[in-house]
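Bumping with the actual sequence this time:
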Amino acid sequence: MYVKNLYEGSTTVFQFHGSEETPFHPSFGVRQGDPLSPLLFNMVIKFLVRKLRSYIGVDVDGTLITTSAFADDLLLFASTKFGLQSQLDKTVSFLRKCNLAINTEKTFTLSFLVDGRNKRLKIVDSKFTVFNCPLRSMKPGDSFEYLGVYFRTDGLMFFSPVEQVKKWLVMLAKAPLKLQQRLFLLREHLLPKLLHLSVLSRIRIGVLNKVDRVVRAFLKKHLDLPHDTINAFFHAAFNDGGLAIPSFRANIPEMRLKRLNNVKLAFSSSAMAGFVNDVLHNPIVKLCPSRCRVPPARIGACPPE
């Protein structure tokens, strides 16, 4: 009743150059800036995911993957052309009842066909529609961005964290900022963004070590620190007398293991759980955190190289 009264009695006013337009009552959407709005939107998407047919999807090691949703990004999976179009139609029908619509300009499809002769997957051009409007079909070599990570039709795009961090550090050094401001941007914005990209990419341990060396060299130069400053000073927490700069060598393996554990909890299927267990017990994966010798509760420190 509270939510109903909140939206039935709300009005919106446009302001332009100090003058206000006539108030009007919005007929759809959620209130801008209201902390309740994300919760209401998530509830709608949750109902949508539940309504989609559970028997249409893609089998992954015995688990049927039907949908994947994050905020306003939605992925639909199907093993047949008819199945995917059926999922699209059901999604459109549900969203219409909620006064929502799919942005066809930002929506695309990616279709694979098994090439048994050459033992590979082929990307094919399949036609799908929303509101009788054809959707863009991805072609070989096309790229797209999802949750801040860039993909091509054949998988993850090449990502070089070393080159990226060097580029950002050059921009940070040229910015007209105080030293404390540079440290804050580096610690709270630039490096966390790079951590997100690195966790979802294929990167070797040697590359992670190089990223840490580049960041430490930048800090030594701009803080006028001795060349032999120990690594722990950069990565230790504030309470321990450090700069609290995240270490890629220590954090990335831990973050990947955490994501895999979350996947294990999200899927109840024994097949998927077994698959995740195999990954978690892979010697290559276990090697990363064990060599860092970092307690699970504190992953900011990094051992000397």
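The tokens above came from a reply further down the thread. Confidence is low (pLDDT under 50) at residues 268-273, 279-305.
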